[in-house]
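Lab notebook, bench 4. Still working through the backlog of constructs that have no structural model yet. Next entry is a single chain of 408 residues. Request: give me the structure tokens for it.
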Amino acid sequence: MSPATATAPRTTGPSPLPVYLTSAILARTADEGARVALVMLAAQRSGSPALGGASVAALMIPHVAAAPVVGALADAVRRRRLFHAGAVILYGVALAALAALMGRADELVVLVLAAAAGCVAPLLTGGLTGLLGELLGEERLTRAFSADAVSYNLAGICGPAVAAALGTAVGAGVALAALGAAAMTGGFLLFALRLRPRPMTRTARRGLRWAELWRGIAELSHNRPLRSVTWSSGVAQLGVGALPVVSVLLAGEYHASWATGGLMTAFAAGALAGSLGYAVRPFGQERPERVVLWGVLVTGIPLATVPWSGHALPAAALFALAGCCTGPLFSALLASRQRYAPTAARTQIFTLGAGIKSTFAAAGAAVAGVLSGLGSPTLLWGVAGGQVLAAGLGVVLLTGRSRGRARP
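Model written out:
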């Protein structure tokens, strides 16, 4: 059997997409909810919000730091089903262990365990998405990526909500353990996917080398479409990361306490609607990078008009409209990575891209917190202007010189 035949997606039999999406939603919901549950658990057991914050930091930082390594391993490993399923199960086990140890074991043990879980976390996001190209035929990938974007949106809405509801009703320890069980269930479901073992390669025989760990970073630097969508969408996340801080300010100005979380829920619901709409009627499939750049640009328009809304309800509608613009953007971003990434580094590029977006979003939240004294109108116009700058950056990177070529 040739390497091409060994790794080609199967086109007969039942679609693997329902099983994949169920697994992805369970794993990503656990990942999103764990951040809330960890803070609640630290407060309930030790009365130390600082421990909760440090645990979340320990969980989140490896999303970026470990992404090149785990992505390269995923690209090199022969038995991907065992590798990915085992990683998701281990993440769930780590959450369950944190539920048992938080506030009862030494803080260093808790932080090391959270960091270990964070090293696996990139495989729950970009790592899983990277499997779609080998599960489905090329003609089905656009809608599959839209459905995958929906899984991210659902996890972003359900994860924190489930963690908060369970943490309040029965305790944060039970909530975190339940999230761990959800991740483990998602991991076991991955064993049902029909992923053929890769043929033995030279990398598999001799192990990874330093240059291979940098292959994905090199592609994001020299591959025009990849670098354009990666850095444009990353810079745009500075503004998206600032929106929770802006929501708090708007809730105070409108005297509407529900808007503190309601505005971000509206944004997430809009993103979900946009992803579903793009799945039904995709557009720009020939040049998905252009959809990304247009999506980044258009997202800022509703947000720029929020200061003139005058009330929380119109502001929520504008947040929802901005979120709706990010739905096609994210689906096209995933399609761009699949189309232009070289096969040998595809999963690494997916994990790196997810880590870069998370980093920029965290930075945006931190900057907005520091500048919150400027008021919500200034911050919103800054967010909207940032989307314009991010789109402009994407155009420059797409048309600028490169030592590499785009790989259709």
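Notes after review: The first helix runs from residue 3 to 7. Confidence is low (pLDDT under 50) at residues 1-6, 403-408. Flag for follow-up if needed.
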